Amino acid sequence: MLESAIGSPNGAGWSDIGMTKTDIILETRDVKRHFVTARPIFGAPTVARAVDGIDLLIRRGETFAIVGESGCGKSTLARLLTRLLTPSDGTVIYDGHDIGDLPEHEMRDLRRDIQFIFQDPFSSLNPRMTVGALIEEPLRVHGIGNAQARRGKVATLLSRVGLSTMSADRYPHEFSGGQRQRIGIARALACGPKVIIGDEPVSALDVSIQAQVINILEDLKEEFGLTLVVIAHDLAVVRHMSDRVAVMYLGQIVEMGQVEDLFACPKHPYTAALIAAIPVPQIGAKLNPVQLAGDPPNPIDMPKGCRFHPRCQFAQSRCRTEAPKLSDTNCAHSVACHRADELNLSGIRDLSNTRRSSARTRFELYRTARAHSDGVKDAPATI
Which domains does the chain carry? Predict the structure, then answer.
């Protein structure tokens, strides 16, 4: 069992953020992960700040999404939450216990509680092992059940994710991408985890298969009382399945809040740009995206002040010299922007009709697949 306990976080108390200590299952306190990219003979080493001071409180039983551009540090943060990477600084706390200095036997107990679904379902599955052996492996490693009980558990898990029990004797290359991702989900569920972290679990799949996998994750969450942490690019997926969402940019959280609140009323220009970038599948559609100048800065050479200011059309002199802190605009919405109270940014309810139609179509695909599996009529989508 885990031994060391951690008290309440510094700064705001649990009641100040509408939570109690027992509500929180996963927490980070000023977590950083820096990678040394070069060590010259003379001078300081070159460091890339992939994750640079993140504070998160993830509620028990919720679906928490982390979004942002490629290279912003989302996947690194996910690996820090599972201690697949160790922080350069800061603390990761699971269920009240600091996981940073756990000895080997306690870390093994933690692995049962926190599982990972990888982005590429093919490369995460050993091609030399049958599906049955892949799913059974975590049971065997943790000493759960005898051989017969484990085989029965494998059959149950395959059925639960929509695969035939005959699949246990086949190899990963014999399955489609969506089926391989279901195998990855079954393997993650094998030890009865409390938290599942998905690193873009549906980004490599087409839309119809995405809907199936998302529905499986939602059903399993309800059935087993799971907490889901989802890393994603696709904002349609995020809005459909998440309770809260955090937006990352260059290793830091720039906005965080309830998903509907954040989509309807973004406070940070970067969040508004991500929402405005939802594609419109219509020939000749006139787009009016938020203008972002250039590419994200190099994480080895961060800009002074606000890290977003070189690309922000609303930047002022203060933005170039003073880094904004993540602060609450209300009890459920936080933003790191000096001009958050001044800007009137467009959310998903304010987008053009063509863009709203595109988003509605995406959401209806997910809703239709879910309704079909439940045997009920499609529920109307609202945007």
Answer: 15-242 (3.40.50.300), 249-356 (no CATH)
